[in-house]
Amino acid sequence: MLRILIDCKAGQGDVIEAMFECHAQQGNLRYGVHRCDSALMTCLVFNLDKGEHIHFIDGSDGGFTAAAKNMKTK
User: CB neighbours of 9 closer than 8 A, spacing ≥ 6?
Assistant: First the structure.
């Protein structure tokens, strides 16, 4: 399973989504999409001096959860 957040213009998103749909129609792919105009970043810090931290990035207004719901309705 691949989960990805893509920052692109609306027209580029249309092209990507059309490609996803083409592959889905062929039975090669299941996908969900959620579009939003902003993202949220969370940083989990273990030890900043040693560079031990992880960034989590998700779309606002539901992000990956909304995309998963979109996939389940298809």
Answer: none
